[in-house]
Write a structure and sequence with these properties.
single chain, about 200 residues, alpha+beta, Nucleoside Triphosphate Pyrophosphohydrolase, four-stranded mixed β-sheet, three-stranded antiparallel β-sheet, about 20% helix, about 40% strand
Amino acid sequence: MAVTSTNPIGALSDRPESWPVHDVERIWEGPAPFSVRRDMISVPGRPEEQFGRLVLEHPGAVMVLAIDEEERALVIEQYRHPARMRFAELPAGLLDVEDEDPVVAAQRELREEGLVLAQRWTHLLTTYSSPGLSSERISFYLAEELSVAPDRGGFEPAHEEADMTVSWVPVDELVDGIREGRITDGPTAQAVLAYTLFRR
């Protein structure tokens, strides 16, 4: 039977919690800023009932919804091999610089991928992409008061990134694409729908 709890109206919140870890097995580590481990954990107070959980260690990421004066968003189309799809996405990237402020990473990604600078930055939301498997935490930002960047800040696109295309798409068209199932990148949908909700 599930344990239920009551929260005062408006007080529901995720909260830090850590169950006992009895053993850690390193499964994979490589040149990418990811690794995979297997933790043997137990329910608090019941150490005899141990079970394994895979964890994809992830440095975190940022995504940028850049909106111009015509209510258009900067959209990137990029091939993603695991899904065998070319996705319509927003500029995004990993927090792969140690102790980097997420908004600084967002500014860097917008310049590198979109050749765009922004004067005004607003935090939209932060979410865990798949907390049952991964520690990835994505911070989403709204970028406004845009201008053209003089360069990519030393970034040289390679592989899939060298094949990216960039366009400006009305936000309402993105909402329609998400609702109709034509735009399926999860973080992109979160950013666009959050902006649409907050704007209203």
